[in-house]
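Follow-up to my post from last week.
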Amino acid sequence: MRNTRRNVLKFIGGAAAGAVLTPVPWRLITDTALLSENWPGVPRPLRGEVSARYTNCSVCNAGCAVRARCVGGQPVSLAGVKGHPLSRGGLCAVGVAAHQLPYCAGRLTQGPVEAAAGVIARAAANCNAATAGTPGAVCNPTESIAVLDLRPGRTASWTYRRAMGAVRNGLYLTAAGPFSGAAVDLSKTHTVLSLGAPVLDGWGTPGNVLATRANFRLIQAEAIESRTASLADLWLRIQPGSASALAMGIAAALKKGSVADGAAATGLTERQITDLAADLTQHGPALVLPGYDCPGAWALNQLTGGWGEAVVARREAPVPEQWKNCAPVTGLESVPDGSIRTLIIDESAPGDYVPWGAIRRKLVADNPVVIAFAWSPDGYRRHALLTVPTAVYPETLEDIPAAIDSPAPVFRLAAPLIAAPAGVVNPPEFVAKAVGIDATNALRERADAIRKAGRGVLITYADGRTRPVAQVTPEDFWKALNEGACWMDTESRRTAPPAMDLPVLDAQPFEHTRMSFAVLAETATAAAAPVSPLMTKLDRESNLRLGRSRAALHPETARSCGTADGRRAMLETALGKCPIEVVVDASVPPGVVQVAASPEVIDICGASARARVAPL
Amino acid sequence: MISERKPAKICRYGMAVDIDKCTGCGACMIACAVENNVPPGNPDATDLTGITWLRVFKVDNGEEYPRKESVYFPMMCQQCGVETPCYLVCPQQAVDVDPATGIVFQMPERCLGCRYCMAACPYHSRYFNWWDPKWPAGMEKTLNPDVAPRMRGVVEKCNYCHGRWHAARQRAAEAGETEISPGDYVPACVEACPAGAIQFGDLNDPTSAPAIAAKDPESFRLLVKLGTDPKVYYHSKREWARRIGDPSQAPSPKEPSRG
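User reply:
Got it. Predicted complex:
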């Protein structure tokens, strides 16, 4: 071929046309696009020395032992500690990403700290003046200042009790039900009847529950096919809101009474209820675990023979003697309505969210003062006059109360892995200081009291050693607790908790109309507490869990409401309404709305609320 | 054709997943995202556009209550050992199979985002970055320095936490060893599973959990008929659950369920 100008041009033209068919131009286009699209670029992870640090997770009462992989002192991943006697190396999904909690959207780092201190100090002074009959007192002698502790059993709880004990009308309130101060022993249990408790979904200490799972037969009585229901040995599908009726039916069967009412309310047959009662007595020790809507069903354990075996009394870890002159523990329900002038709510450590309506009616009608200690904008900040920012795990130094499935008393610290931002406060120290008490060293004093008692063992995570606490010096004990350790009391003689009365429950038969459905809140792992931003992997990006602001409906129910999958709708109850996104799910029974238990939802829904879903 | 490098020791890393033990808690999914710097979902992300290298599905036997049974099914890249579909279709050689480990790699730097591999993957285990990776302010500090975050417009997938494999190799080298001890290299999902449902090991080692599972008559693999030699063995005592491996026999729900 001659090198003519025409041939050269043909070659160039052919090469250009051919190049379009190769990846080269597309690669160039993509690279150019990526460079332009990614400004300011993909973040670069920090570099630094890699180290392992140990602590305990304080996201819930399980307090699982944690090994944190740190880079340059910053935790980048968390894992369980193998060989821990209770958490058994387990860590739930929320705990695995808990080192990201400080970076949640809307994290509170600023607030009216000085104003809150002044308000608490003045409220305490006013209460003292009013009860002493001082002329010109600004509040009524019957009005009080109170602390609502959402996570009782901590050293912080004792500090609050001491602080409220220093005020004449001071109250220390908890929302803990009648079962506080007791524990369950799954290792001694052969049959578990759960009345809606999420046994396999974050209840108790997840690692311990799964490790002992082979020992017991699990019967789940629940209206919806929850994660626990789908994995239970037997799932009894009962009518929504009828768990209490089932408990009463079983009690009647155990007392050889009529179970007709229980059968009518639950949708089960009388035979099923009598068989269930027989199962509990014949395959014991049996444990009856109530869900959030029937706490009184703990008393059923007295009839099944599990009281003192599967359900035991648990003593508290030693506390300094001088602390015991303090305010008693008072249940929120037992406080007269309209009697609290100033209420302090500590939600710095996630606990059981109490519906705002239950709190509101205890406050005085005219200008009550509510001060919330919180790190997240969710929760009681929406109702409080003042919100004081706090640290959050893993920034805090705090102890974690014993989990419900820990028969032995324990003491463990959530030692800080990173520094808390400037401007946040430690709620118990803050309240104590406002009323004139020094509690800056409370954790150390508690640790010294435990060490002085000389009981139990110290389990250190870094070396996996277990030593009698009597062989450890007070300094080493404190140091070990701060570097990742757990004190566990020695097994004492098992005793049954104080006797409880089985409440008489008024069970209404389930019935739904076209525009009125039962609302069931999904109460799995720390559902009401804020979680890591990565939890979108479990809800929005995979639909494995029901995300916040989402509600699952049966296809028929969705159709009857005029809505469909992915549509926006309004969930309305007698107490209020909140916007939701509809998720169509055939496993939800018709006539039921399943929602995730966020504070907004708990505020508008009772234990068995009725609701309607209106399309937006 | 697979890469021609000649490693000193040939491993075939695989997994054994006991779906009877899985509770669907999702700890494995979160641990995977933390370890591999997968960003939180974009506000517009859905289950079709989100990125979950490991995803847990809920599967039932298609019956109605009270005969209904369900299992939770962790699904990750099956690390196909033969005729690896994504490897075969990639026009950019952005997919490679490591002959030393049998792990199928995705190289985001080479990927042009054509998503042929996603179409070819019979397990839907590949994910496309539809959005720029974004973390809330300050959360970049919690990123794992052993894994580079990926940019928008590329495909990514499970690689058995290859950063951990490198770290284990380095530790072995520092100790004067030439091979990784079996317990020293464990992917994040295996470490995180509180139920012990996921186990990891070398299929060439007859004492490893996956090798034992491979011989168990109650174990199965997904879509074996395709002949891609997936290296994840699932185990269940329930006969209907074992049929998940073969879609022509698997139960199908009458109406859509979540999860």
